[in-house]
Amino acid sequence: MKRETLCKQTDMQPGEMRQFQLGRRGILLVRDESGDFYAVGSECAHQSAALVNGKLERMWVGDTVGESRPDDERTVVVCPWHNYEFDVATGRSPCDPERLRIQTYRVEIEGGDVVVNL
């Protein structure tokens, strides 16, 4: 397995995302509001928009029709073109989880470095 150091842990604040290019592979590194890091493919699975130009927010969930609230644990990146959402932990879109998904990569913190496993 190939491993790449993307940045220092202190280089990104909670709620921030940055795009990295590793050869031909685009990686979107996300630091959620809790401070946890996630790495996903950098393009939307719908029409290949650059997700770094989108938003990072808590996933909206609800128990009944017309009622919604931000989830305390799940974070999504929202596509800037058509507002498709992708869970940063699973890469799946809540709209169509079997068809719309982006690649996910395991992230580790080693000596203050953010390392992605490709």
Helix proportion: under 10%
Counting DSSP H or I runs of 4 or more residues, the number of helices is: 0
The CATH superfamily is known as Rieske [2Fe-2S] iron-sulphur domain
Please identify the top-level CATH class.
Mainly Beta
Architecture (CATH level 2) name: 3-layer Sandwich
For the sheet with most strands, the description reads: 6 strands, antiparallel
Q: What is the helix/strand order? A: EEEEEEEEE
Poorly predicted sequence stretches spanning 5 or more consecutive residues: none
As for the CATH topology, it is: Rieske Iron-sulfur Protein
Order of strands across the main sheet? 1-9-8-4-3-2
Basic shape: globular
Distance between the termini: 6 Å
Give an overview in words.
With 118 residues, the protein is an all-beta fold. The chain has one domain: Rieske [2Fe-2S] iron-sulphur domain (Rieske Iron-sulfur Protein, 3-layer Sandwich), CATH 2.102.10.10. The protein is 0% helix and 48% strand. The strands form two sheets. The chain has a six-stranded antiparallel β-sheet with strand order 1-9-8-4-3-2, with no helix packed on it. It has a three-stranded antiparallel β-sheet with strand order 5-6-7, with no helix packed on it.
In terms of topology, how is this protein built?
Elements (H helix, E strand, L loop, with lengths): L2 E6 L7 E7 L2 E7 L5 E5 L13 E7 L7 E10 L6 E3 L16 E7 L2 E5 L1
Question: Which tags fit this structure?
Answer:
118 residues; mainly beta; Rieske Iron-sulfur Protein; 6-stranded antiparallel β-sheet
